[in-house]
Design goal:
alpha/beta, 8-stranded mixed beta sheet, Metallo-beta-lactamase family protein, 9 helices, Metallo-beta-lactamase, Chain A, 7-stranded mixed beta sheet, Competence_DNA_uptake
Length: 284
């Protein structure tokens, strides 16, 4: 009798746990019409995680090392082991080093990369991991649209041609994330010559609520011309606290101040997350 009562109690507890787990997963999977964009605190480098209202996910760059896995675990459910799209913007190690581990841990459907060629051992290891993953590989070109569902999409602004032999920063993949009336400008390490070229091509179409400061706040990016057309409410410096490059440069800080743009910094704030309902963008 006692054994039967014990088994009944155990069965009820197991069923309760399973039911609670199912409801928790369902709750976590319901984005409630919200787009979430997280600029991950991965030290000196870039890594941006996009969670669309449809549930589709994009990772733009992976920072310098495996530390990105810990940061991804902080912004995505523990059971989630897939990412729909990964974009290594260019071969520099501070952007792609962590993707080696990401590709080993997560199942990736599509990889969108620049045609710019890398020559480092890190980039060779990334390319080997891409091949092993078996994901669909797309070479980025201006005009491509990545449909994230439920009205969210990512548009490629640059490069506008094959760029196998240019400087890696010149050939990096510049994207703009759009959801409803809101948008995020994500210019990788693009220098001012690319920024100003985009102003000529797109003008007011560059306007975005959030701008990731190009090249971690270096003075080689964030030209006043470009920043003025983007006209963001927020700018984000993605960088390590004690980086040897002096990022962000005071000239860039002054540019944002001149335009009354609120500048945020992963060094001092950790991972920076924004939420959009398609009408407004708020910092979480």
């Amino acid at each position: 009798m006692r054994r039967s009562r014990f088994l009944l109690t155990l069965t009820i507890l197991v069923l309760f746990f399973l039911t609670a787990t199912i409801w928790y997963v369902a709750w976590r999977e319901d984005r409630r019409g919200l787009l979430t964009v997280s600029f991950l605190d991965i030290g000196q480098g870039d890594s941006i995680f996009i969670d669309a209202p449809s549930g589709r996910q994009v990772l733009i760059d992976g920072g310098p090392n495996a530390g990105v896995l810990r940061k991804l675990a902080e912004v995505s459910p523990w059971w989630d082991r897939s990412i729909d799209v990964v974009i290594p913007t260019h071969p520099d190690g501070d952007h792609v080093g962590g993707l080696i581990d990401v590709l080993q841990r997560y199942t990736v459907d599509t990889i969108i990369e620049s045609s710019v060629q890398g020559t480092t051992a890190t980039w060779n290891a990334v390319e080997k991991a891409v091949h092993a993953e078996g994901a669909r590989v797309v070479i980025a070109h201006r005009g491509q649209i990545v449909d994230l569902g439920d009205g969210a999409y990512l548009e490629v602004l640059s490069p506008d041609r094959d760029v196998p032999n240019v400087d890696t920063n010149l050939g990096c993949v510049v994207t703009r994330l759009v959801y409803g009336e809101t948008s995020f400008m994500l210019p990788c390490d693009a220098p001012q010559v690319i920024e100003n070229y985009l102003v000529v091509l797109d003008g007011g179409g560059l306007h975005s609520n959030v701008l990731k400061a190009g090249h971690h706040g270096s003075k080689t990016s964030s030209s006043p011309f470009f920043v003025g057309f983007v006209d963001p409410q927020f700018a984000v410096f993605s960088r390590g606290c004690d980086n040897k490059y002096g990022h962000p440069n005071q000239e860039t800080i002054d540019t944002f101040a001149r335009f009354n743009i609120k500048a945020l910094d992963t060094c001092t704030e950790g991972t920076i997350t924004f939420v959009s309902d398609g009408k407004t963008v708020t910092k979480r």
